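Quick one: co-fold with calcium ion.
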Amino acid sequence: MPVHNTDISDVLSKTADLLEIKGENQFRIRAYRDAARTIGGLSKNVADMVDEGGDLSRLPGIGKDLASKIAEIVKKGTFPLLQELQKEIPGELSIIMKVAGLGAKRVKAIYEELGVDSLDKLKEAVENKRIRELEGFGEKTEQSILEGIKRIKKGKERLPIAAADQIAGPFLDYLKKEKKIKDIIVAGSYRRRRQTVKDLDILVTCSKGSKIMDRFINYEDVGEVISRGKTRSSIRLRSGFQVDLRVVPQVSYGSALHYFTGSKAHNIAVRKIAVSKGLKISEYGVFKGKKRVAGRSEESVYKKVGLSYIEPELRENRGEIEAARKKNLPDLIDLKDIRGDLHIHTNYTDGHNSLEEMAEAAQKKGYDYIAITDHSKKVRVAGGLDEKELAKEIKKIDKINKELKSIVILKGVEVDILEDGSLDLSEDILKDLDLTVCAIHSKFNLTSQKQTERIIRAMDNPNFNILAHPTGRRINEREPYDIDMDKIMKEAKKRGCILELNSHRDRLDLDDVHCKAAKDIGLKIAISTDSHSRGDLDFIKFGVSQARRGWIEAADVINTRSLREFKKILKRK
Ligand code: DGT
Ligand code: CA
Ligand code: CA
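Sure, here it is.
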């Protein structure tokens, strides 16, 4: 039975939630949360590792004890501790905890005093104005609870692209074992690398007599077969996530791929152009009357209607067709253009690997430089650094740099932007750094005007370089804070500050639309991972694809430059 990383991660984080509601030991809770996060972010499949007898306790944040528990989850598909907990506390309280602003204590209070043990009952309690009767709750809380419920219900329908990758990988490997397959690809929003996807749209060509449909519906993780046909079938995985499969003839592969990659708006616009040229486009080909004149490849489809080839990430009908007609499409950034990572944590604060380990991993990726950016002191939960501790880290980096040959470690920090817009570390130490990554970690609820001013004031500080995760949103989890992004971008540009595209799988912040806005005013961005362990360095691919969706070229990104050039850009006037 294939247990996906997302399933394991869900079990562990649910266990942590219920332990917290029970008021258990903080360290134990943290251990489960760390493990959930590690596994949720792994590119390797944990079930495969277990099968191959791999040692899970080598993963960051996972000890021997948890490693054996995880192996048990993989083998049995259940977790006895969670089952025990659910006998005492309703499991859905864990979902209620995901509603913004409701921690374990408040969820417990709502449950014990109002009997709320499901999202529906929570909604009912808000509508009947019962929540505000509880001590410490008010009308404002009710409002934010309602919004939280809406967001969770919406989030359930769409999966973050990183989670979709974890599902698509093993599923495709399984399907490819059918020898008669010629092409196999996931089209749809997945191919366009949207930040979330509703389902997977798999497209296949194969030679006669293939058993692909049988193979498809017999995948072990199938929960329900929605439909089964000769050329088209749909299933739902046990998690509820839908997967469609279509088999198309090879002469139509290009036009089918074009059609099912979408977006719908892009398809419609291309079809209109075809019509104006006396052609007809469908998933079967480009036709002149009854004659197929193109369709074997996507390139042939675009060419026939007079357009240059458009990369999937651009196909949103946001100006790409016009640009393709004028041969004016951007030369999109590639993963291989990235020469360094500028947002990395170590176990000196809340990361899992040492400075040396992170440097070694970055070297393996072929990077020329990285910036170590541990947290500043106000981020207390993370055990942030004060001036003295940061000075120590700086010394250590200087020492390591002398030993390293092919990579340079830049001295950085992720410094908090405090409520009044000041930075959380003194000028004395900030000036000794190569760069600062500045971020908001508190007071998310200020008015738009105050929040915007807070950031602009911070950028006034000459030591400010990069604004990290500029909107603070977390995909399916937390809305962006209220800010005037246009204004922040303009002011950043004026001051020579950079905006980050945080590539962490849960963030992707800036998003595609903001990337395009930055590009349009000539504001440079940094694509970084916010790595907390070695494996996180691979998140960079999610950042790059999001940037591609935002029309970003290598020249728009500071960490595609040589170290010298990059330092020049970083220098503020
Ligand atoms: P999703 O699944 O919501 O994340 O986004 P998509 O784009 O993958 O949407 P989906 O799965 O409903 O459909 C896959 C592709 O099929 C879509 O991108 C374009 C194409 N398609 C679907 N319906 C239509 C339609 O009514 N007209 C046209 N021209 N194309 C369509
Ligand atoms: Ca889709
Ligand atoms: Ca679909």
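If it helps, The radius of gyration is 25 Å.
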